[in-house]
Amino acid sequence: MEEQSVLSNTKVSLSSASMSNSSALLLLPFLAAFLVLWILSLAFLKKRYSRLRLPPGPPALPILGHFHKLSLDPHKSLQSLSRTYGPLMFLKFGSVPVIVVSSPEMAKNILQKQDQNFAWRSLPVVQRVLHKYPSIALSQPDPAWRSIRQICATQLFAPTKIKSFQPIILEQVRSMLRSIDADGQQKSCPRSKLHVASSNIISMMALGKKLQMNESNSTANASSHLTSLLVESIELSSIFNISDWVPWLAWMDLQGCERKSKVLGGKLQKVWTEIIDERRQYRNIVGPERKDTDFLDILISAFEAQDPLLEYEKITPILYDIFAGGTDTSSITVEWALAELISHPSKMKRVQDEIDEVVGNSRLVEQDDVQNMPYFQAVIKETMRLHPVIPFLVPRMAKQECRIEDFDIPANALTFINVWAIGRDENVWENPLDFSPERFLGSDFDIRGRHFQLLPFGSGRRVCPGMLLGITNVNLMLACLLQAFDFEPDERLDKIEKFGFVMALANPLLLKATRRIPIHLLE
């Protein structure tokens, strides 16, 4: 029996070894092809860049390029590299040429002096598959994109339009304030409440309903709800996808991002189609006397005027941008401001005293009050300097080869503006790591792209189209929170960052709140 067992085991081992050898033999052609492609790509890149005087940068590894230089906090890694190689660096992420900008002067070169050449985008695989047409943020600067930007500037995000939506914003802010336990004992997580408020503000303005009321009616499956689909799409877009950086491996879809995007895109389109169908049916019933009451109405009217055979797929990427760009960014900025003010009690007292002096306790803060609160405005600017929610902005791409100072920039180079590093540059700011709103008092610094030391919304033709809405939401949510409550941390407060689609606190704030104003103001 033992001999039979040994013989059986020997056969199994030989069989396994044979299968292993067969598998290795099957892989050999792929490995050989991979090696050939790698050698060819190196030769092509060497020839392509040999005549250029590229900006300085560290030595690159084969295939990986400079990925080995990045940590889990790439904004910090690139800041550290810029101290060695300068404010204009050339890197390669995989096979993609990358320019990293880390000073206001270099940012001005890209965003103002050569804005037109750097107004192009590289379209990631996930976004390309999710939407039939590119979103506003990722469209190329062609006539169609300019037309959409014009609609946004004149009809969606115009000052008069934002002002008309202020009652909606204030009502959602009141709802958020009511949801906070104010007995000074209960823990409260502002992030979740801020997220709900900002989501509902965007949804009310865009679709006329709170976000939870825009769920799919076709199925009870929660995975088909707009809320969960938007979260899933943002998470999928945040994945480091090898296909974006090593395009000749894209056909393999190694991480399954393309496959997942196809499935998710179909679900998203189904929900958007239901929402738009319902609205168009209502518009047909009401007839010509109807008024465009929200963004969806405005978009349908604008697109129908240009194209009577309207394709829904042209509207849905715009709606997606409005939700994705306007929800987390506002709520995370307010959370950072709260964290800094709670860490600096004297500054918290100063800004609350200013709110009390300007507004009192007989009504809630309104947007018009903010212009009379210079210290509050300085708090917002200082928060956005130290904690830009999108630390690299949305990467731009050089359409054509160009020159910046003494260096050549290759065509199709992806350009990262490290606004996080610019905001902490000791050559630009005095004591840059200190939270000091006072630095902005009496200065003309603004956050709308005119000053390249402070670029939370970008600048030039690619400046965030919803900037005014974002500023309004941040102003009202933060001012009302500071007016309504005194806060103290439930435990030791840390300000560790977590890099991602937006850069938030790694550990959400847990606070104890005590009400400062009469409760009837929240009703």
The gist of it:
With 523 residues, the chain is of the alpha+beta class.
Q: Could you explain the architecture of this structure?
A:
The chain crosses the membrane at residues 24-45. This is Cytochrome P450. Belongs to the cytochrome P450 family. Its cofactor is heme. Heme binds at residue 464. The protein has 523 residues and is an alpha+beta fold. It has a single domain (128-522), classed as Cytochrome P450 (Cytochrome p450, Orthogonal Bundle), CATH 1.10.630.10. Helices cover 51% and strands 8% of the residues. It is built from 19 helices and 11 strands. The protein has helices spanning 2-49, 74-85, 104-113, 125-130, 143-156, 159-164, 166-178, 190-207, 226-238, 242-245, 257-286, 295-306, 316-326, 328-343, 345-359, 367-370, 374-386, 419-423, 467-484; strands spanning 88-93, 96-101, 183-188, 396-397, 402-404, 407-409, 414-417, 485-489, 497-498, 504-505, 511-515. The strands form 4 sheets. The chain has a 4-stranded mixed beta sheet with strand order 1-2-7-4. The protein has a 3-stranded antiparallel beta sheet with strand order 3-11-8. Strand 9 and strand 10 form a beta hairpin. It is globular. The N and C termini lie far apart (85 Å).
Compute the average pLDDT. 87
Number of helices: 19
CATH-derived architecture: Orthogonal Bundle
End-to-end span in angstroms? Answer: 85 Å
Quote the beta fraction: 5-15%
- Element pattern in H and E: HHEEHHHHHEHHHHHHHHHHEEEEHHEEEE
* CATH uppermost class: Mainly Alpha
- Gross morphology is globular
CATH topology category name: Cytochrome p450
Strand order of the largest sheet: 1-2-7-4
Tally of separate domains: 1
Q: How many beta-strand segments?
A: 11
Percentage of residues assigned to helices? 40-55%
GO molecular function: heme binding; iron ion binding; monooxygenase activity; oxidoreductase activity, acting on paired donors, with incorporation or reduction of molecular oxygen
Family: Belongs to the cytochrome P450 family.
Keywords: Heme, Iron, Membrane, Metal-binding, Monooxygenase, Oxidoreductase, Transmembrane, Transmembrane helix
Binding site for heme: 464
